[in-house]
Amino acid sequence: MRAVSCKLTGSNLGHPSMLNPMVSVIIAPDSFKGTATAQEAARYLGEGVRSVIRDAQITLAPMADGGEGTAATFAGQQITLPTVDAAGRLTDATYTFDAEASTAYIDVAAASGLPAVADDPVPLTGDTYGTGVLIADAQTRGAERIVLGLGGSATVDAGTGILVALGATPLNSQGYALPKGGGQLGELASVDTAQLNIPAAAVEWVLLTDVTAPVVGPDGAAAVFGPQKGATPDEVMLLDAALTHACDIFNVDPLTPGYGAAGAIPVAIHWLSTLLHGNPSKVHVLPGAQVVADALGLPESIQQAGLVITGEGAFDDQSLTGKVVGTIAELVEGTDATLAIAAGRMDLDPGDGVIAAELGDGDVDKQLFQAGAAIAADYLRISTAQG
After folding, report:
1. I want to staple 107 with a disulfide (CB 3.0 to 4.6 A). Which of 122, 149, 230, 298 is the partner?
2. What family is this (predicted)?
């Protein structure tokens, strides 16, 4: 049996809600990149569901997987301050600080993200200094744990920009400060820690990622993600060699799964934490979507749901490998809940019994509303047919 497919024409929106009253609906989408945040997507989908199933118990649980928007899914105070983007230009960036938990939630994309430099990419010279500024600020407010979302970065600097922001200076063999960016990492010889911000460097690190990529090789940070950040084939080769050298200097295994995330930021974090604590026990690389789902209590609440709706911009061959949609699908599996997926583009059949809604053209808020309504109508139809 193929997926149940909704057409957003309004022709299947007329099922009366009384057929399945008080159904519990959980709406847990990712952002629809460039068109709707996860919060907006959840709200519009929920309004669509409510227009069909008026008595539904709807829980909005906007999701993220370590990329842009991850920090906003956690509770806490929103902190905005001036910093710099990947190209070194002044910008503002926001992170979430939970004073009670002494934890800061920071998206690398907030300061060092690709959109800010999309018109003029900086694959060789871009760095994560701006993210390091946020980290240092969070520590001054009392953060003892940094939860860093490693998605959407514009950089391939192995996290050396963060080191500089925390007072550690990468040097070449002549003892001069290394120019910023991953393109210079082949000249890395040592790191001067005389001015190191020890309190900020000594925090516990939770690195959230949606990939298991190693640092180097055909599946590594440069080969897979370098072209997305503007790197040419020759620059990819240069970056891969530079990252290999950096791993040797930092004494990090370049094939460690997940360490290729966000231009290999875990490499510098691993080295820094090991330097201060004697081992990397304070560094945790975790699947972002699962951590967010756990924080929202979704493993428990989905057990009681009748309908679970997730979604993203494009449902494709990457969706089920550590992304939000795949994580939600795994949580639904084995429960009595029906899974529904809304996407701007459906490139894959999502599988047996899954309600699939592909958005059309036009205002995204209207399309998401219609997708929610169509999913609800199909859910009622299926529930009625099954008795």
Report:
1. 149
2. Belongs to the glycerate kinase type-1 family.
- Bridge partners of residue 96, in order along the sequence: 78, 105
Q: Encoding tokens for residue 276? A: 């201060």
- The answer to whether residue 14 sits within a structural domain is no
Identify the three-state secondary structure at position 37: coil
Give the model's pLDDT for residue 386: 65
Q: Tell me what pLDDT residue 7 has.
A: 39
Q: Give whole-number Cα distances, 82 to 59, 90, 112, 152, in Å.
A: 35, 7, 13, 19
Count the domains in the chain: 2
Residues 30 and 141 in one domain: no
> In the chain, where do the E strands start and end?
4-6, 24-27, 57-60, 77-84, 90-98, 103-107, 145-149, 169-171, 190-192, 204-209, 283-287, 307-315, 338-346, 355-358
Dihedral of the alpha carbons of 259, 265, 269, 272, in degrees to the nearest 10: 120
Q: Which residues contact 364 (CB under 8 A, 6 or more apart)?
A: 32, 35, 36, 44
Contact by Cβ (8 Å): 358, 101: no
**Mutual angle of helices 38-52 and 364-385, in 10-degree steps:** 50
Mean pLDDT in residue range 96-107: 98
Banded pLDDT at 223 (limits 50, 70, 90): very high
Surface-to-core class of residue 234, CB atoms within 10 Å of its CB (0-12 exposed, 13-18 middle, 19+ buried): exposed
Residue 202: which of 151, 175, 168, 227 has the closest Cα?
168
Give the domain range for residue 39: 24-62+297-386
Q: Give the span between the Cα atoms of 381 and 20, in whole angstroms.
A: 10
Query: 10 Å Cβ neighbour count for 44?
Result: 25
In a domain, 10, yes or no: no
Tell me which of 231, 260, 288 is where a domain ends. Answer: 288
Whole-number pLDDT of residue 326: 95
Q: Which residues contact 333 (CB under 8 A, 6 or more apart)?
A: none
